[in-house]
Design goal:
The structure is a single chain. By secondary structure, the protein is mainly α. The protein is 73% helix and 0% strand. It is built from six helices and no strands. Helix 3 packs antiparallel against helix 6 and helix 4 crosses helix 6. The longest helix has 38 residues. The protein is elongated, with a radius of gyration of 23 Å.
Length: 204
């Protein structure tokens, strides 16, 4: 049987969704591990990553069930959801790759001001204090705060890594967005293929 046939398309779609299941479990596991060992104290960050993992797991589960059963309704909704995720993820990935230095700085500052837990994690990990200035009258978990004059602001350190991180995130996002559009194409093709083992009158 050629690779464009029913069985090959079914296997390819199933393998793609198994990959998504593994990625979702990895996201959930890494977030839980980081929270358990105190690497990340921000509940919002952990909850966000776990939420993305659970959503990806549910979508992959629907796609896998639809592929194994050749279920027209499940495959239709899976195709619509996956295409929507593709559009959003492709847009965000392109935005990450297109941000200039000023836009990166504004994004970093917005994220910094949104969560005190994130501030604490960054200050402890990078050994810095404050975003744009060191407040000697405040508190800081960084070890350098014992001599505040030796502390550097976190913005200087974050900006040195922001470009590389955004390029990495954008590249990973683009890679997975193309796997998603591949999943949409496979699903559309698979829905219109007839199961050779089914009765002729059973095909919708």
């Amino acid at each position: 049987m050629v690779c464009g046939g029913f069985v090959c398309t079914k296997n390819a779609l199933s393998a793609l969704n198994i990959l998504y299941v593994l990625v979702s479990l990895l996201l959930i596991g890494v977030a839980a591990w980081g929270k358990w060992f105190g690497l990340v104290s921000s509940f919002q960050v952990v909850a966000g990553v776990i939420g993305v993992g659970i959503f990806l797991f549910l979508v992959a589960f629907v796609g896998l069930c639809g592929a194994l059963k050749h279920h027209q309704v499940l495959l239709f909704f899976y195709m619509i959801i996956l295409f929507t995720v593709f559009v959003l993820q492709f847009s965000v990935s392109c935005a990450c790759l297109a941000l200039n230095k000023d836009q990166q700085n504004l994004l970093l500052e917005a994220g910094w001001n949104k969560s005190e837990g994130t501030q604490t994690d960054v200050e402890r990990t990078l050994n810095c204090c404050g975003f744009s200035q060191v407040n000697v009258n405040g508190t800081c978990p960084a070890s350098c705060f014992n001599k505040p004059s030796s502390c550097v602001t976190c913005s200087n350190i974050l900006q040195s890594y922001a470009g590389q991180v955004l390029q990495f995130v954008g590249g990973i996002g683009l890679f997975f967005s193309f796997t998603e559009i591949l999943g949409v194409w496979l699903t559309h093709r698979y829905r219109n293929l007839k199961d050779p083992r089914a009765n002729a009158g059973a095909f919708l």
